[in-house]
Write a structure and sequence with these properties.
Elements lengths: L1 E12 L2 E12 L3 E5 L6 H8 L6 E6 L8 H4 L3 E4 L11 H11 L5 H9 L14 H12 L6 E5 L7 H15 L5 E5 L3 H4 L5 E6 L2 E7 H7 E6 L1 H8 L5 E5 L2 E7 L3 H5 L3 E3 L3 H8 L2 H7 L4
Parallel strand pairs: 3-7, 3-8, 5-6, 6-7
Antiparallel strand pairs: 1-2, 1-4, 8-9, 10-12, 10-13, 11-12
Length: 291
């Protein structure tokens, strides 16, 4: 079952093209990392998914037109923006009471459980909390809603590395159930790699990379060679080559590992390595077939 399906999605702001004919499909029950540099189109794509902005092209989210049927969509979708928008005068306990009263899918017990792992006091006002605490509160409230789709835009912004790790562990162990779909837009690539089922790189308003983590393990391979094996390795047409610590690292796509193993050391590239290859000025060369 598809959770999100978009074809030819286009959005312009004056002369600026934010989305340039994006095609993307996300199946239900996946945890998808939406990754790209500033201005790449991530926020515009999230806004289109959530029905916050109209776009040209076609998009369906949970089977609905997000712009025309947003009220219905948001009964089963939850969004955490990169900047928490809770009123500064609101007390923590009042935020819990409010959601418990107005949202039929909010679970107070779950929210209390998330907050029990923090130092946030129930009587505190949002305006008296640190930036990290506000982010924690916002996330605890959102993750306590039984939504089919959770969209997170830089969800750990303002949190230190310890809290970021705890958040992603809670997201994976306490929230995700293989039926919910989670879309995470973030710059912290290495921190989320271990929880993702899929990775989408966006650059210049286009999807430049869209693979499952399983596909990355089977389709992509890095070969580390010394100078003596470099030319032989290049003849096998790597999609990218870089030099580091006196060695050459060549990235291959859809090459049999047995064919490469005789030339050097093999390893699976991590997401940040692939990101550097596919995004920005290097992406145009890769999309053309060579780097």
């Amino acid at each position: 079952m598809r959770c999100i399906e978009a074809h030819g999605l286009t959005k312009t702001y004056g002369k600026t093209v934010a989305l340039n004919g994006i095609d993307v499909q996300i199946d239900a029950g996946r945890i998808v990392g939406l990754i790209g540099p500033n201005g790449a189109g991530k926020t515009s794509l999230l806004n289109a998914i959530l029905g916050l902005t109209p776009c040209e092209g076609e998009i369906r989210v949970l089977g609905l037109d997000p712009w025309a049927e947003r009220a219905t969509l948001m009964q089963d979708a939850c969004f955490v923006a990169d900047v928490a928008v809770l009123p500064r005068w609101l007390k923590v306990e009042n935020a819990i009471d409010y959601l418990d009263g107005v949202h039929p899918k909010f679970n107070r017990t779950i929210a209390e459980g998330f907050l029990a792992k923090t130092t946030i006091q129930r009587k505190s006002k949002v305006g008296d909390l640190s930036k990290g605490m506000v982010a924690q509160l916002h996330l605890a409230l959102a993750m306590s809603i039984d939504a089919k789709l959770l969209v997170l835009d830089e969800p750990t912004l303002g949190l230190d590395i310890l809290y970021r790790k705890q958040f992603y562990e809670a997201l994976l162990n306490d929230y995700y159930d293989k039926e919910r779909t989670i879309v995470v837009a973030t710059h912290h690539i290495d921190e989320i790699q271990y929880i993702l089922t899929d990775a989408i790189f966006v650059d210049g308003g286009r999807v430049v990379f869209n693979e499952s983590m399983d596909q990355i393990e089977t389709r992509y391979c890095e070969l580390i060679v010394n100078n003596e094996s470099l030319e032989a390795a290049r003849e096998l047409e790597p999609i990218h080559t870089r030099h580091t610590f006196g060695k050459h690292v060549l990235l291959f796509r859809d090459r049999e590992p047995e064919q490469l193993a005789t030339l050097g050391e093999l390893r699976t590239p991590n997401l940040s390595d692939l990101f550097m290859v596919y995004v920005s000025n290097q992406a145009s060369e890769v999309r053309g077939g060579r780097a």
